[in-house]
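Ticket closed. Logging final result for Tryptophan 2-monooxygenase.
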Amino acid sequence: MTQKKNKQTTPPRRQFLEQLGGIGGSAAVYQAMVAMGLLVPGDSKAATNKANWQEKAALFANGPKPSVAVLGAGIAGLCVAYELKKAGFPVTVIEPRDRPGGRSHTLRAGSVLQETDSQQVCGFASGEDMYFNAGPARISQHHANLLNYCSELNVPLQAFVNDNRGAYIHSASAFGGKPVRAREVIAAMRGNISQLLAKSLNAGALDDEFTAGERAFVLAVLKDHGALNDFFQFTGTTRGGLAARSGGLSPDVPATPLERNDVMLDANIAFVPSFVESYNQAATMMQPVGGMDRIAYAFAEQLQAEIFYGAEVSGIFRTGTGVRIEGRTATEQGALETDYVVVTIPPSVLRDIPNDFSPGIQTAIEQTQYANPTKIAFQSPRFWEKEEQIYGGISWTDSDILQIWYPSGGFGQDQGILVGSYLFGGGNATNFGNLSPSARIELALTAGEKVHSQYRANLSQGISVAWSKVPYSLGGWATSNPSPLLLEPDGPFLFAGDHLTYLRGWQEGAVISALNALSKLADAAT
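Final structure:
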């Protein structure tokens, strides 16, 4: 192993961050992490992230390279191992499952979903578009690190329809409990807000803010934005839908606008439209053709013999010069000694594995909290396309399922996979996860009928996941802010995973953390 050079005369970064946190709190730590290159604010600086690692890896091109173990074949672990192998480092990946991807798990015909208290077998028909992304299901347009790997690994992508004005928004306390199209809600919200602002402008309430010329311009903007009439009143617009189709031979008639208070004063309605305007949810979103696990398998294809599946880590300990990883398979126990280890096991699992991490690291792992998201999916004839002209997107409901996702691929085919619920966490997700798989199906069907009356008659082959019950995951994503300590080496131990970034729950976060771990590994080994 290459000898480490003691070049530091100032406190190491971990000690500095601990001291800074005690003085200035988390905000000071965050700014310091940005300044030190540990976090990237805003867009992912893909070229910079990867270039930093490649520049440092080049220093080892003609010399000895330390051996590295990677614990976990999720996206973070696969990225670390892939880059290490490309750079000629001896690398071994230890993965307890029989597949790569970790939480990036796509279910197809015959797939087995194991939870701590149940097992389900996917009964979908076969087909390229007949899959259920039980874990991550979308990629944002600015997740450049992940998208670059998709290009490098030849993973074809297609648009993921996150926003569809033809999908439904449903609240039991609005519109008589009937679902309405998203376009109706958005048109009514914009129209009513614009009307109220125009009324204030015309009453002189904002004269201190605008000159007469500016006031006239703002009124014109409001008229256009809200589809107001010449009297600055909102009386309806074809943006919200049509009372009846004209067939193209006569003018279309706007549908009667929704009641203002139903749109603006119902919390289950008013906050839904802005969801797709958040930075990570805004169009264009993408997905791999054929399922999200295509990315994990593309990484794994480049590793092959470096990955040991079905091997569960039972201990992580320091040796005199490196690290010893103890593990077991279904038939034997063993150990692996390497110079370094990159740990991508989620803290929800890692906290129960014996180790001799430093006390600060152990505390950070213990304090990381996880969300308990749940999902369920069904096979169905595509009635939403044929009868309701919904092609992709998400319907929202205040019932026990929260969301219904329509497939973004296979348009026009007879059958498709409908995500019948996605709960991000909290009490509803806990209740859903505590149900048996059959009870989850019944709950989802009952709630879904409030959005689609033909729901129960069409849906079959339900399969669900409660991520807090999935072995080797025990949660969906971290809900607590990342610890800066885990971004620095702890002797031979390094850490990676989306939980170490502010892109928690996104594969981009996993890749960013992987590139950070690689850079820090190169620093430590130099």
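The two ends are 10 Å apart (CA to CA). No further action required.
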